[in-house]
Known about the structure:
The chain has helices at about 1-20, 30-60, 60-65, 70-150, 155-165, 185-190, 190-205, 275-290; strands at about 25, 30, 215, 220-225, 230-235, 240-250, 255-260, 270. The chain is α+β, with helices and mostly antiparallel strands. The protein has 2 domains: about 1-120, no CATH class; about 150-290, Inhibitor of vertebrate lysozyme (Inhibitor of vertebrate lysozyme, Ivy), CATH 3.40.1420.10. Strands 3, 4, 5, 6, 7 and 8 form a 6-stranded antiparallel beta sheet that branches. Strand 5 (about 230-235) and strand 6 form a beta hairpin. Helix 1 runs antiparallel to helix 2 (about 30-60) and helix 1 (about 1-20) packs parallel to helix 4. It is rod-shaped and about 125 Å long.
Amino acid sequence: MKKAGIGLIALGFYCVLFAFNMDVVVGTTYNIGLMNERQNVVYLSGIIFLAGIMLFGFGFSAKEESKNLKTFAMACFLSPVLLLVGIKTVVSMRESIKQEQIRKQNAIDAEAYKKEMLIHEQEQAAELRRKQAEEVKQIELEKQEIEAIYKKNSVVKKILDCNYNRNDGNTTIEFHEYTDCPYFFDLYENNIFKESFVSSINEKKLKEFEWIARGTSSPVSVVNINGTLMFISSVCEPHNCPNEFFIAYDIKHKLTFGIYTPSDENQDNIIFGNPSPEVKSILDRYRRRNQM
Length: 292
C-alpha cells in the first residue's frame, strides 16, 4: 500500500504540474473553455494526491507504526508544502510565459502599426505632390488666361513674370516684395485696375484721394488664394503713412478688395470691395505686417 500511495502522490503531483502547464491563452486572450479544463485536471490531481497520502499512511504495519510515526507525520506535513511550492513555481512560470507572449505580440503589433503609418505617410506625400502639381498646372493656365486678357498691358505681364518666375511657379501667401518689380503707382496707371479700384472705394463713399497716384507704395506681390491669382500691394499718403490703402486685386475677374486705414485713430478701418473671409484674412495679415 505504501508503494501505491507513493505512486499516487507522484501521479497527483505530476498531474498538477501538467494542469498548470496547460496553454489557456489564445493570442493575448484567456480562453474560458481551456481554463475550465485546467481547473478540472487540478481537482482530479488533488483527489489523487490525497488518496496517495491516505494509502501511504495506512500502509504501515502496527510494528512499524510507532517506528515510522515521525516519518509519516513529516511526510504528511511536507507533501502539501511541496505541492504548494510546485504550484507556485508553475504559476510563476506560466505568468512569465504569458508576459513574454504578450510582449512579443505587442512588438509584432507595433511593427505592423509602424509599417501601416509609413505606408500612410507615403500615400499622403504622394497625394500632396499630386495636388501641388495640379495647383502649379492650374496657376499656369490661369496665368496664360490673364496674360491673354491683359496682352496689351506690359505692367501686368511684368508683375506676373517678376513674381511668378522667381518662385518657380509656386505663389504663396508670404508677400514676396521684390524691389525691382512694379509698384502700386505703376499698376495704378493701368486703366482696368484703376476703374476697378475707384469703383470699389466709391461703394464705401471714399473719394479718390489725389495723393494715391503719387503715394508711397510697396512692390506688387502675386499670391494664390484658393486657386485665384491676386495682386497684393499698398499705398499711403506721403509723410502721413497711417493714412493708407491695402489692396488685393483679382486679376482675372477685375475685382478690387481692400482695407483703408485713416490717419485719425478715432476712426475705424474701412473694408471695401466685399472680400471673402479668406481674402480679408490675408489683407489683415498684410496690413499688420506692413504696419509693424
